[in-house]
Amino acid sequence: MAVLGAICFGLVVGWITYGALRRRQSSPGLSDLAAVLAAVGGGLVTTLLGEPVVFGGYAVGLAVGFFGYLVLITLMPDSKWTAG
Questions:
Q1: 36, burial (CB in 10 Å: exposed 0-12, middle 13-18, buried 19+)
Q2: Which one, out of 1, 50, 54, 65, has a CA that is 20 to 30 A from the CA of 27?
Q3: Model's pTM, two decimal places?
Q4: Is 23 helix (H, G, I), strand (E, B) or coil?
Q5: What is residue 80's DSSP assignment?
Q6: Among candidate residues 6, 82, 84, 5, the one with its CA nearest the CA of residue 44
């Protein structure tokens, strides 16, 4: 169950990270730093649990969420899921 939770957590963090980085209007700023820190912080939290499998689940979820957003905006650029 912990691995499934880590995967879901990674999906959400990856999705939000890509969305935040994609929507930036100017030079990199605080929101970009916060998005990256959220991804790293999530990895840190799962590592502190002491189970390598949980971190692996988080990493998989993070990648799927991050690149899933990219695939969705490529295939459906006007999707309500990517509206900013």
A1: middle
A2: 65
A3: 0.73
A4: coil
A5: T
A6: 6
**How would you write the pLDDT of the chain (84 residues) with one tens digit per residue?**
778 888 888 888 888 888 777 776 666 777 777 877 888 888 888 888 788 888 888 889 888 988 888 888 888 888 777 665
Residues 10, 64 contacting (CB under 8 angstroms): yes
Q: Which helix H or strand E contains 39, and what residues bound it?
A: helix 30-48
Domain map (residue ranges) of the chain: 1-10+33-70
How far apart are the C-alpha atoms of 16 and 13, rounded to whole Å?
5
Q: How far is Cα of residue 4 from the mean position of the Cα atoms in its chain?
A: 15
